[in-house]
Amino acid sequence: MGKEEHAELIRSGSREQLSHRWRELIEWYSLLNLSFSDDKFPALSGLAKQMARSRPGAKYLAGLWSDSLEIDLIWWNDELILVSKSRTSRPTPPRAPSWSWAAIDGHVIFLGSSSQLLPTEKPRGWSQIFYSIIEVQCTLATSDPMGKVSSGSLKISGDVFDCKIFCNEGKMYLERGIGWQRLQLGTLWDDCLCLDVPDDPYGLGRGNTLKEAAVLCIRMARERREHGRQKETEFGMARGRLEHGRQKETEFALVVYCADEVNKTYRRIGMALQTRDYSKCSDPWLDKPSCFNTGGRREIITII
Predict the structure, then answer these.
(1) What count of other Cβ atoms lies within 10 Å of the Cβ of residue 90?
(2) Which of 114, 119, 115 is closest to 238 using CA atoms?
(3) pTM for the full model?
(4) Domain limits at 115?
(5) pLDDT (tens digit, 9 = 90+) per residue, 193-210?
(6) Where are the beta strands (DSSP E) in 41-131?
(7) How many domains does the chain have?
(8) For 185-196, b where at least 16 C-beta lie within 10 A, e where not — what string?
């Protein structure tokens, strides 16, 4: 999107268009290597203030927005890696609450992203949210309302599942229990575990990861996307109407780790993704059920 198109969207865009544009900007911004990690929020402050003028009543929350928070919270680390070769890091001391994309230095992708499509593909679909936000708080570190934060907490209500993450032969897996498929670390598989910091998921220091750890998974959302493709000419140029494309659905579950057993607070450590292809059968979720479809318990979880 060019500067003029961006300016016009900021002036007259709908709430949905503005929130989508912000997530696009963050996906691009998260690719940058800042000279000083602590500048993550200050360097974005000007854009955030520009966006705030077009979103009256929306509160800025550590790089996310209160009027689109249900979607903004569904992001994941897009690094395709082996555990030993991760480039993603988590600054010390923490720069943002763990539920914010700004908590890590690495490329992030949001629900509804169009950044992974080919130039000739057009996303069309819908999303269904399975959880609700109870309360969110963010404490500023400076007088700049779009600047650095010192702390934050989030309370959400959703279907919660007891799971474990374990290492086996150099690979990491998420497993709900016997009889359920394992989700392997990485983004090449239909069912995958995307850890925020793969070689230090629990904040113990690089290389000090646990062999096995109990975690909770919270069912967050399901998104269907139809990837319509424009028919190409013999010269390779895309023209004409969109042809009927593939329909896929992806389900997202937030993965959290207990940070304080006494106060029952948790830290986000990743996202579990499960994808089903409707070109293969009429109801792929029936053929291969979600790990988080049944058997959970409704709880309110506090994430810091």
Answers:
(1) 20
(2) 119
(3) 0.89
(4) 3-303
(5) 999 998 889 988 877 778
(6) 60-61, 64-65, 75-77, 108-110, 121-129
(7) 1
(8) bbbeeebbbbbb
